[in-house]
Amino acid sequence: MSQTETPSTDKRRSKVWSILLWSLLGLVFFLWFVLTQIPAHWGAWAMTRSGNVALSGVNGTLWNGRASLATVRVDGEEFSLGELRWRIEGGSLLVLSPCARVQTQLDRQRLSARVCASLNGNLVIHDADISAPATVIEHLVPDELDGQLSGRFERVELDQTGLRYIRGNGSWRNVRVNDGQNWYDIGSFAADFSDDGEGNLVANIFDLEGVLGLEVKAQVYAIGGVHLDGIMSLDPGFAEEIQAREWIDVVAEYQGRDDNNRLQYRLDLSL
């Protein structure tokens, strides 16, 4: 031991370090308490400031919150998501890419996904599971629709210009259509979704069962519009029921009968 250091000096130094350590731990716990108690309304403000999302009945904290009712606006149309719950992953903040687990529920409509945002404004959605009644897309067509939509998307990337990347699949089961007078049972269908590298959505659609057969590639353009290319087959009885002979030649070219004796048509149609 040097002449300048004494046992009492060592004790004072140890005491100082103990005070500093406990003060630091106390500060960490204080900050943790403050951050975890930030009200959910702060998170609600961040989600709704764009004007495309509306929340009501918000409670909980910024990190683990709930809204009793959430609605989103897409192309001027408002869609209700029902109850919304979110949980922010604290570790994601360390890499400057905040992520949250999101769940919504409304009757037959459900959504769960992991959503991450980057500093440049890009949005990445992981492991999204979606289920909803077909009525959510009735605004896209002139007729009433029924059936259940479901989808599983491994990854979806969006930037300020729109879609950058998508991989997933989905189905529409027990499809029914009402033309204003009658309901028609169509069948069930599935699709694989991807992008073409230019911001456009590509869906390969095929039938699972029913009176309408499909093997169609649908391309949905970011600038608007849809192109359909492929084969459509109709059960003869169903074709007569919907009076297909009176209008189908306008949208498709007759190719004969397929192996199941269904009327087969070639689609090459832009909408």
Describe the structure.
This protein has helices spanning 7-36, 40-48, 236-241, and strands spanning 53-60, 64-74, 77-89, 99-106, 109-117, 123-133, 144-159, 162-178, 183-195, 201-210, 212-220, 226-234, 252-257, 263-270. By secondary structure, it is an alpha+beta fold. It has two domains: 1-37; 107-270, no CATH class. It has a 14-stranded antiparallel β-sheet with strand order 1-2-3-4-5-6-7-8-9-10-11-12-14-13. Strand 5 (109-117) and strand 6 (123-133) form a beta hairpin. The longest helix is centred in the first third of the chain and has 30 residues, at 7-36. It starts with 6 loop residues before the first helix and ends with a strand.
Distance between the termini: 90 Å
Strand content: over 45%
- What's the helix-strand series? HHEEEEEEEEEEEEHEE
What integer value in Å does the Rg equal?
28 Å
Q: Whole-number average pLDDT?
A: 80
The major pleated sheet works out as:
14 strands, antiparallel
- Report the total helices: 3
Shape: elongated
User: Looking across the biggest beta sheet, what order are the strands in?
Assistant: 1-2-3-4-5-6-7-8-9-10-11-12-14-13
Number of domains: 2
How many β-strands, per DSSP? 14
Residue stretches low in confidence (pLDDT < 50, at least 5 long) are 25-35
- Helical/strand content category: alpha+beta
Residue share in helices? 10-25%
Q: What are the key terms here?
A:
3 helices, alpha+beta, 271 residues, 14-stranded antiparallel sheet, 2 domains
Describe the structure concisely:
The chain has helices spanning 7-36, 40-48, 236-241; strands at residues 53-60, 64-74, 77-89, 99-106, 109-117, 123-133, 144-159, 162-178, 183-195, 201-210, 212-220, 226-234, 252-257, 263-270. By secondary structure, it is of the alpha+beta class. It folds into 2 domains: 1-37; 107-270, no CATH class.
